[in-house]
Each structure stands twice: as structure tokens, then as C-alpha cells.
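Weekly sync, protein design subgroup
Attendees: M.S., D.O., the rotation student, P.L. (late)

Item 1: inverse folding check
M.S. brought a backbone from last month's batch and wanted to see whether the design step gives back something sensible before we order anything. D.O. pointed out we never logged the input encoding, so this time it goes straight into the notes. C-alpha cells as presented (157 positions):
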């Protein structure tokens, strides 16, 4: 059992490639929700993921509604700069879906209405910085979730 990374309408191939590489390294499934802002065979996507794509457990979903259809609210954690609660306040569980929006606009606002208690942010100390890069944000949250689940213990050997 593991956490899952979900990218809703990702737009920048190198970000998705970097996230795929992270998912391969940590054995975390990656879910891509269409439409994507690039072709899945994009050379920049492949370059960023290097030769690790064969080790990525990859799922594609035709729409956000398709992805959400079979998920319970408790399984979902949405990440947004507009959220009030920190990602550090989450007690991550196995089979938790960590959901991130597109780089230029974030997650649809109606999700915050539908799942108000399931929205979290990564604190940023400098008010002039709007957000972290998507691949950095995913890495911060995934490593915290994996730490809480004890999945990193013994990995330093």
C-alpha cells in the first residue's frame, strides 16, 4: 500500500517527468487526469523522467469526474495555495491520493466547496512568492507522507 500522486491537467512536460521520476524512485503510483497540456510521448517529458518511465505505475483518467467517481473524501488530499491548513496537519494513510492542479491555475475552485476539509497548503514564508514549482511541491508532500507511513525507514542503507 502506498500513497498515490494525482496530477490534474498538468501543463509542463518537465514537471510531470520529474514527478514521474520521483514516483519511480519511491514506488508511488502516478495518476494523470486528462486533458494534459502535452503529448505523453513528448520529448521533454521523457527527458525529465529519463529512463525511469518503465518503473512508474502509471494510470490515466479521462476527466477529473472519472477519477473522483470511485474515491471517498477521506482518501483525498488536495493541495492549493488557497488552502488554510498545512500539509503537516495531515495524518497520511495508505492509499491516500495526493491531488495537485495544473501549474498555471491550480485546482478548480468547486473542489474546495465539495471537499472543504480535504484542502491543504505548503507554507511559504516570503509573501512575494506565490507558489512552489509543481514538482517541488509534490516532492515535499510525498516525502512527508512516506515518512509518516514508515516507508523510508531502512532506505538509507
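Designed sequence read out in the meeting:
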Amino acid at each position: 500500500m502506498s500513497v498515490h500522486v494525482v496530477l490534474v491537467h498538468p501543463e509542463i512536460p518537465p514537471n510531470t517527468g520529474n514527478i514521474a521520476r520521483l514516483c519511480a524512485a519511491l514506488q508511488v503510483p502516478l495518476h494523470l487526469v486528462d486533458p494534459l497540456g502535452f503529448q505523453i510521448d513528448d520529448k521533454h517529458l521523457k527527458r525529465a523522467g529519463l529512463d525511469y518511465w518503465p518503473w512508474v505505475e502509471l494510470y490515466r483518467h479521462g476527466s477529473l469526474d472519472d477519477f473522483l467517481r470511485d474515491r471517498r473524501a477521506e482518501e483525498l488530499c488536495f493541495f492549493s495555495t488557497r488552502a488554510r491548513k498545512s500539509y503537516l496537519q495531515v495524518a497520511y494513510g495508505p492509499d491516500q491520493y495526493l491531488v495537485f492542479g495544473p501549474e498555471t491555475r491550480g485546482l478548480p475552485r468547486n473542489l474546495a466547496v465539495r471537499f472543504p476539509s480535504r484542502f491543504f497548503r505548503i507554507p511559504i514564508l516570503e509573501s512575494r512568492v506565490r507558489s512552489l514549482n509543481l514538482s517541488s511541491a509534490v516532492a515535499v508532500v510525498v516525502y512527508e507522507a512516506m515518512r509518516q507511513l514508515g516507508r523510508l525507514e531502512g532506505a538509507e542503507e
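Discussion: The CA atoms of residues 19 and 138 lie 7 Å apart. Residues 134-148 form the longest helix (15 residues).
Action: P.L. to compare against the previous round before Friday.
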